[in-house]
Amino acid sequence: MKAVHFGPGNIGRGFIGLLLSKSGYDVCFVARNKKQIAMLQQRKQYPVTLANENEDTSIVRNVTAINGNDSRQVNEAIAEADLITTAVGVSNLKHIAPAITTGIEHRFKTNDRPLNIMACENAIGASTHLKKMVYKLLPAELHEKADRLLAFPNTAVDRIVPAQDNEDPLEVTVEPFYEWVILRPAMKEGPKEIKGAHYVESLEPYIERKLFTVNTGHCCAAYFGYLEGYRTIQEVMASPRLRQKVKEVLQETGKVLIRKHQLDEKKHQRYIDKTIDRFANPNLKDSIVRVGRSPIRKLSANDRLVRPALLAYQYGIEIPQLISAMAAGLLFDYKKDPEAVKLQEVLRKRGIHHVIGQYLGIEEDHPIHRQIVDEYEKLAKGIRKKNAAM
Ligand SMILES: NC(=O)c1ccc[n+]([C@@H]2O[C@H](COP(=O)([O-])OP(=O)(O)OC[C@H]3O[C@@H](n4cnc5c(N)ncnc54)[C@H](O)[C@@H]3O)[C@@H](O)[C@H]2O)c1
Ligand SMILES: O=P(O)(O)OC[C@@H](O)[C@@H](O)[C@H](O)[C@H](O)CO
């Protein structure tokens, strides 16, 4: 069985490639970095180390890589694939959609086998989003065949994989916890089951629970910590005050999730507690700028901050800490993050009301809009005062 995975980055190697390989797939990574491609081609394996006390290491075997710009190789790999996965960042799916589409066209000329394509990105409906882009590019006369042979099952992947600084550039250090949830009814029959993945009949409760707990809490820790000069999530979680703030955010989104998906309260509390412990894992060093990266995406209407905030408003749930996190996110001005730079530029040129309306999708007449503005101004004033005193 052959899997083609776009994006051999942290989660691609540290989780997707690992589970696929352990499930008996030969994994071909579609990559951009020439040095990385050469190493994967030559070694055909790489180590994954768990961030636990023993630093347990396993070897991911039967892997190789091809260059995403080599359309002949990409076409051939897609034609032969039994499964395609991606982990390139949801905003980058548009860059790989053309190669996937061309590969599908080539595949249709060579065989009639069904194919599942899963975008393992942190977003609601990422595979559906990729499907829309592929269908836009695919000639209309192939749509019927695509409906028959292709599926884009949505999925939720969870494992904290920080930016790596190992001596071996292929090695990945990952947290021990993992969860991969796949929407089974959306799949085409055929491919080997992924060992360790959880196949479900409805994905929404799982992806929302993950995104609005793990990712909401994570980015809140990053944005709160950034304002106070911390460098890592572990440092933030070691501050009792900030840890408490993050916990409170998760109580707020927890109420939303319990109400929306009729989750068991005690079970969800255990999920929150486990999530907090995962953030604090002393064997990991996860930078604030990785976790807070791409604030425009994270503050967008369908993502981990605004979506639970609007649901909370709808349900009459108070969300002071979520408001505080959105305001802190608007102050995330890390110079090496292109989205942070753009956000700050628009804030300077067009002002806070424009940004909340256009980027967060919350109009001025919505009560949450005002609350974010008030909190943003309060935090910005605090920063000005601190800078003046320095
Ligand atoms: N790291 C985590 O903890 C984690 C966990 C769950 C989900 N995710 C999600 O997985 C995705 C990847 O995250 P990551 O942390 O592994 O990031 P990363 O930057 O480590 O990896 C991204 C990979 O995609 C590649 N890539 C980007 N654009 C590409 C293109 N046009 N063609 C080919 N390759 C391309 C990059 O070269 C890189 O190898 C994101 O959507 C993220 O939200 C990450
Ligand atoms: O990947 P992002 O930018 O959507 O979010 C950053 C982190 O919160 C994220 O990568 C987590 O580590 C991961 O989602 C855990 O499963």
From TrEMBL:
GO biological process: mannitol catabolic process
Domain of life: Bacteria
Pfam families (UniProt xref): Mannitol_dh, Mannitol_dh_C
Catalytic activity: D-mannitol 1-phosphate + NAD(+) = beta-D-fructose 6-phosphate + NADH + H(+)
Enzyme class: oxidoreductase
InterPro entries per record: 6-PGluconate_DH-like_C_sf, 6PGD_dom2, Mannitol_1_phos_5_DH, Mannitol_DH, Mannitol_DH_C, Mannitol_DH_CS, Mannitol_DH_N, NAD(P)-bd_dom_sf
Coiled coil location: none
SUPFAM superfamilies: 6-phosphogluconate dehydrogenase C-terminal domain-like, NAD(P)-binding Rossmann-fold domains
Domain Mannitol dehydrogenase N-terminal: 1-195
Key words of the record: NAD, Oxidoreductase
Domain named Mannitol dehydrogenase C-terminal: residues: 203-379
Entry EC number(s): 1.1.1.17
GO function terms (MF aspect): mannitol-1-phosphate 5-dehydrogenase activity
Gene Ontology cellular-component terms listed: cytosol
Presence of the UniProt keyword NAD in the record: yes
PANTHER family per record: ALTRONATE OXIDOREDUCTASE-RELATED, MANNITOL-1-PHOSPHATE 5-DEHYDROGENASE
Similarity comment: Belongs to the mannitol dehydrogenase family.
Protein name, as recorded: Mannitol-1-phosphate 5-dehydrogenase
Lineage: Bacteria, Bacillati, Bacillota, Bacilli, Bacillales
Gene: mtlD
